Amino acid sequence: MPSGSIPLALQSLFYKLQHSDTSVSTKELTKSFGWDTYDSFLQHDVQELNRVLCEKLEDKMKGTVVEGTIQQLFEGHHMNYIECINVDYKSTRKESFYDLQLDVKGCQSVYDSFDKYVEVEHLEHDNKYHAEKYGLQVKSESKGL
């Protein structure tokens, strides 16, 4: 298997996982990410792994009939808005994402986590918002939907 080919390393790993009765090494997959032995012992979170994996797969797919597939499969959009309470100022912007960082602490289900994700955040104290001509606003609300 060519070293450095994430798609081939993934394909091989999943084949081995499906057809092996024993544990399977992830060494080839680790090498395909360009990580050396030292990197393999560093903690990598799942969001970082997903980002690197998607970037590498998108690069491999450029110029092929499947170009753009990763984006079509995984990209989502939400509107982030800020509304000031003391002045007449609102701001909205569309943001794209490949993953969401959901808080699970204190949540009984993924639905509770989503409810918490879209709760209004009050921007005050050290978390003020600069509202263009109105300057820093002590009380503002932010929400992404």
UniProtKB/TrEMBL annotation:
Give the Peptidase C19 ubiquitin carboxyl-terminal hydrolase domain ranges. Answer: 6-99
- Entry's InterPro entries? Papain-like_cys_pep_sf (IPR038765), Peptidase_C19 (IPR050164), Peptidase_C19_UCH (IPR001394)
- What GO terms fall under cellular component here? cytosol; nucleus
Q: Which UniProt keywords apply?
A: Hydrolase
Single Gene Ontology BP annotation: protein deubiquitination
The answer on whether this UniProt entry bears the keyword Endoplasmic reticulum reads: no
Question: Which GO terms label this protein's molecular function in UniProt?
Answer: cysteine-type deubiquitinase activity
In terms of Pfam families, this protein maps to: UCH
Determine the domain of life of the protein's source.
Eukaryota
Tell me what this protein is called: Ubiquitin carboxyl-terminal hydrolase 12
Say which species the protein is native to.
Cajanus cajan
